[in-house]
């Protein structure tokens, strides 16, 4: 059984990290979102069968893939060179930039990263947002190590922002927009990172990688991609 978690050779198990709306979240006990619908539509185009979804913290997804607890990551995961040292990705299926999110009407209203100097900043563990805090804020001496709070999930960071116990978080723009729409937080500014999301697979699973890329193309060429986008984004 080369495909790890599935019993049948063509059965695959997907992993995701809910709390990243509108890509993946749990509503009324049910796992839903853009990534859920998209991966299901994409796998439908292939010879594979999606047997199960596992909910895992974001920074546990790559280890779970390597351990063969899951076979594919669908978690708004940015394709990065760092990650490509351990896993492989399908072709990209969504583009996003980063934003800084603050308390709505709060005292901290930065216009650029430099304005976060000396502030308390949060991000979700293992994300590209955390990478920006490390590389652009801590390494540049704008904030100290101790000013950075790493969270298992962005929802916990957003709750701290609402309470005013955290000054700002660095997070993907489409997710920041979703949080800003229904919580007491707002986007301070957006900065271009040109990130692209892909489905993650083990490096040796070339067939699955290729099937997913072809499936993405088929879904994008049909009306399905637009339908899924319309369902989860106000577009
Ligand atoms: N796109 C970001 C990353 O890959 C955040 C993903 C997430 O938090 N689910 O790190």
Written account of the structure:
The structure is a single chain. With 235 residues, this protein is α/β, with parallel strands linked by helices. The protein folds into 2 domains: 11-93 and 198-232, 3-Layer(aba) Sandwich (D-Maltodextrin-Binding Protein, domain 2); 96-193, Periplasmic binding protein-like II (D-Maltodextrin-Binding Protein, domain 2), CATH 3.40.190.10. Helix content is 31%, strand content 27%. The chain has helices spanning 34-44, 61-66, 128-138, 154-163, 173-182, 206-221, 224-232, and strands spanning 11-16, 25-27, 30-32, 49-55, 72-73, 87-89, 94-103, 121-124, 148-151, 168-172, 185-197, 200-202. The protein has a 5-stranded mixed beta sheet with strand order 9-8-10-7-11, with helices on both faces. It is globular and about 55 Å long. The model has no long low-confidence stretch (mean pLDDT 95). Glutamine (GLN) binds at residues 17, 20, 58, 75-78, 124, 127-128, 172, 195.
């Amino acid at each position: 059984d080369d495909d790890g978690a599935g019993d049948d050779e063509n059965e695959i198990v997907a992993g995701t990290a809910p709390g990243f709306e509108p890509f993946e979240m749990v509503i009324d006990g049910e796992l839903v979102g853009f990534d859920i619908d998209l991966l299901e539509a994409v796998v439908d185009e292939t010879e594979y069968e999606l047997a199960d979804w596992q909910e895992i913290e974001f920074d546990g997804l790559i280890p779970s893939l390597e351990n063969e607890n899951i076979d594919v990551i669908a978690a708004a995961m940015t394709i990065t060179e760092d990650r490509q040292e351990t896993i492989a990705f399908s072709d990209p299926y969504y583009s996003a930039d980063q934003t800084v999110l603050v308390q709505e009407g709060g005292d901290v209203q930065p216009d650029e990263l430099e304005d976060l100097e000396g502030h308390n900043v949060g991000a979700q563990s293992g994300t590209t947002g955390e990478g920006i805090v490390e590389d652009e804020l801590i390494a540049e001496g704008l904030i100290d190590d101790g000013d950075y709070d790493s969270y298992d999930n962005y929802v916990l960071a957003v709750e701290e922002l609402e309470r005013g116990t955290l000054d700002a978080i660095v997070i993907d723009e489409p997710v920041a927009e979703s949080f800003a729409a229904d919580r007491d937080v707002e986007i301070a500014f957006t900065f271009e990172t040109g990130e692209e999301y892909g489905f993650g697979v083990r490096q040796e699973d070339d067939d699955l990688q290729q099937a997913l890329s072809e499936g993405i193309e088929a879904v994008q060429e049909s009306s399905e991609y637009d339908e899924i986008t319309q369902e989860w984004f106000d577009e």
